[in-house]
Write a structure and sequence with these properties.
homodimer; 113 residues; alpha+beta; Arc Repressor Mutant, subunit A; 3 strands; 13% strand; globular; DNA-binding
DNA sequence: CCGTATCCCAAATGATACTG
DNA sequence: CAGTATCATTTGGGATACGG
């Protein structure tokens, strides 16, 4: 991994644990980012349809986390029935773009297996 | 996310949950991959030094998982004292390469904050 | 040195019901 | 529709001690 900003002799040379990485390292989070990225803008119910393994409460909690981290925005429309749209921020889109090669690799690998 | 192999109307269009993604989405796993990638080959104790937040048992368990997924190899030398070297497989190195932009983004972002 | 075995605890998720 | 609240449960992870 040449070029990676990391002096190999420093015990803390690796990309250290932090909030975003912790968040990414939680169930469904990469999936959520991916689904939002693919849709551009997406409603809560749609997310549930796409990630049926995640419970309502978990999905909701992770979306809150993502919003708090500034990776997604939540737009609420006061209609009846209510409608809420989630969308990636510029920052979130940047992350999604970097995540894509990883997800493609995961997909390709599963296909091989 | 144009170009991502995913039809947006399919409820399962996103990169689906699978074993590798689950593994990546666990505490310290991306860190472990990164540390091994940076070192090329690394001993257990060194990994512990680099990721002090992870307990011995957790580190050991994740390394087993990574080996089972074919992402790292474990080479044991019957010396006294014993020595074990972990190394990325070709597959693991491929993943690490794709992970790098993500980790750089995480690092850069933390630096901004 | 490199782990595994145990036990324990906290955190994280699931299920469900209910509300604006 | 889009959640929140609550409760139960699992699972993951920490600490420690011991074995090869």
């Amino acid at each position: 991994m040449e070029g990676f900003d990391c002096a190999t002799d420093d015990p803390r040379c690796y990309c250290p644990l932090n909030d975003v990485l912790d968040l990414l390292g939680r169930k469904y989070v990469m999936d959520i980012v991916c689904v939002v990225a693919v849709h551009g803008t997406v409603r809560f119910g749609t997310l549930e349809d796409h990630i049926p393994a995640a419970s309502t409460s978990t999905l909701s909690a992770r979306l809150d986390d993502l919003e708090a981290e500034g990776l997604v925005t939540r737009e609420q429309y006061d209609e009846i029935p209510p409608r809420v749209e989630y969308e990636l921020t510029d920052d979130g889109a940047d992350l999604a773009e970097r995540l894509r090669p990883v997800l493609e690799w995961v997909q390709a690998r599963e296909h091989r297996a």
